[in-house]
Design a protein that fits this description.
Rossmann fold, alpha/beta, 18 helices
Length: 518
């Protein structure tokens, strides 16, 4: 999907900026890291790859001073260090940019950049000097905005650059980026990669974590693979073909990440007509404007668009979650359905998997059973009393069908890997026996093994007669999975393609409002 040339290689290869050797970590009886060695050179991007649960997050938490290793040694520029807390790591030039950004939304850009290390005299902040320092730091990531502007007023792509600038304000030379493109459009990804190239030229070393293979082979200089808490390989990007990388990550070969199947049924399952979603502010054009589409029984319909195109809002509106500002006409199996709320949608056999499982898909403080049965509570409590036996039975049945891996059904979902968390979300909706599944980027933030399993499940559900409307930021895989694809631009459908009859470039051209002839 990414057509830019690979970012230039490292500028230095002498003493590593950072090195870890013999790192071990155990939680209870589970050994999470086993004798791991890892190093980072100045001016390189070192990708840390592995399935969810492989130990990547634990290794980075040790690097960031969040937890202590049980055994092992760490060195910065050749000198041994022991990070007992995040401040120790920051003082040694380490910055971690998490997938969930750590910015304070209502505060200004300047206040966020220097939070905790403000410039002051006798308790008075140096406002003028701070503003200039902010502009200087922002210029290093090519971001030109007012330092007084509130962070939450910025688009997510600019917030991502503010987070990088915050690391540079601390004079960080070792920067960890955890899934930094998960909420970015392709043009925004290109801009981020250009900024990463700038950081490399300034001598920074970047540890980059992503589950997107195309990103790995665009951005990486070296790749290290963790599996089951152990380092299984460290190689230059050119010496590690994608198929071999996947095999190292999952311990098996996945020859067809998103296997294709063919729809043979022409029965109309879902028809959405004249869907319009008004903006939250007066005088702003609708986010979705008079959109209509059909889905056949057993069909997978792909929906794509750049950020702000209205893809997610279209799915939410169809589910009745935007009833106060959305209008549409919905027909299921030939019957006109009035959907004013998610409960109406669930009763009609529609389910929605949102693109943010932690905020809108799960209740992290609850266990697997409680989460997996949330959408089916009315059928589990017909007389207002919850039938705990039926609850446990439904949760076990739904999660077993999805091959959920967990120590106990009473395990909190916050302790599961990303792929298993997503399986709990899917189990929650399969417990309602839906006729229509709306899947908004269902493989976001999960590893290649879990993605493969989710795509197989989608094929299985479609073969059972369920209809699926599917959006994804993984456009090559969406092309392979979908039977048809519609493309949105500025709230309208601007193009449609039969499955297999388009390329990522075709989708991008349409999503940007262009045509092949332009």
């Amino acid at each position: 999907m990414y057509t830019m040339q690979a970012v230039a290689g490292p500028t230095q290869t002498d003493t590593p900026l950072f090195a870890m050797t013999g790192i071990c970590k155990t939680f209870g009886v589970q050994q999470v890291l086993r004798d791991v060695a890892f190093d980072l050179r100045a001016g390189e991007v070192h990708v840390l790859a592995g399935e969810n649960g492989a130990g990547k997050s634990t290794l980075m938490r040790i690097l960031g001073g969040i937890i202590l290793a049980d055994h092992g040694h760490s060195h910065v520029n050749g000198s041994e260090v022991l990070f007992r807390n995040p401040r120790d790591a920051a003082n040694s030039g380490v910055a971690i940019i998490h997938q969930e950004l750590s910015l304070v939304g209502p505060m200004s850009v300047a206040d966020n950049l220097f939070l905790g290390h403000e410039s002051s005299t006798a308790g008075w902040l140096h406002q003028t000097g701070t503003a200039q320092r902010t502009r200087d730091v922002l210029s290093r990531v090519s971001l030109r905005i007012d330092p007084r502007r509130a962070v939450d007023s910025l688009p997510i792509s600019s917030q991502q650059l503010v987070e990088i600038a915050k690391a540079l304000a601390l004079d960080a030379q070792i920067i960890v980026m955890d899934e930094p493109t998960s909420a970015l459009s392709e043009p925004e990804v290109r801009n981020l990669f250009a900024r990463i190239a700038d950081l490399k030229s300034q001598g920074c070393g970047i540890i980059y974590i992503t589950h997107r293979l195309e990103e790995i082979y665009t951005i990486a200089d070296r790749i290290s693979v963790l599996r089951d808490g152990a380092l299984v390989a460290t190689r230059d990007r050119s010496d590690l073909p994608p198929d071999e990388l996947v095999r190292l990550m999952v311990g098996r070969s996945i020859s067809d990440q998103a296997p294709r199947r063919t729809v043979t049924c022409n029965d109309l399952r879902l028809r959405v007509q004249h869907c319009t979603v008004r903006a939250t502010r007066a005088g702003v054009p609708p986010i979705v404007s008079d959109v209509s589409f059909d889905v056949r029984r057993g069909e997978i319909l792909g929906v794509v668009g750049l950020e702000g195109s209205g893809v997610s809002e279209l799915l939410w509106a169809t589910f009745g979650a935007l009833a106060n500002r959305a209008t549409s006409e919905i027909t299921i199996d030939g019957q006109r359905i009035r959907i004013n709320s998610p409960r109406d949608a669930i009763d009609a056999g529609i389910a929605l998997v949102t693109n943010d499982r932690k905020r809108t898909g799960l209740i992290l403080g609850m266990d697997i059973v409680q989460n997996a049965t949330l959408a089916a509570l009315p059928q589990l409590s017909p007389f207002t009393w919850l039938n705990h036996s039926a609850e446990t039975s439904l949760a076990s049945q739904s999660t077993q069908q999805l091959s959920l891996r967990a120590a106990s059904m009473r395990q909190h979902v916050s302790t599961l890997s990303g792929g298993n968390q997503q399986k709990v979300v899917l189990a929650k909706w399969m417990g309602t026996n839906p006729r229509v599944l709306l899947l908004d980027d269902p493989t976001r933030g999960v590893d290649v093994g879990a993605k493969h399993e989710i795509y197989l499940l989608m094929n299985q559900w479609s073969e059972q007669g369920r209809s699926i409307v599917f959006s994804s930021s993984e456009w090559p895989e969406l092309l392979q999975v979908s039977d048809r694809i519609i493309v949105m631009h500025r709230g309208r459908i601007v193009a449609s393609f039969e499955g297999g009859a388009a390329t990522p470039a075709d989708l991008l051209r349409a999503a940007m409002g262009s045509t092949r002839d332009e």
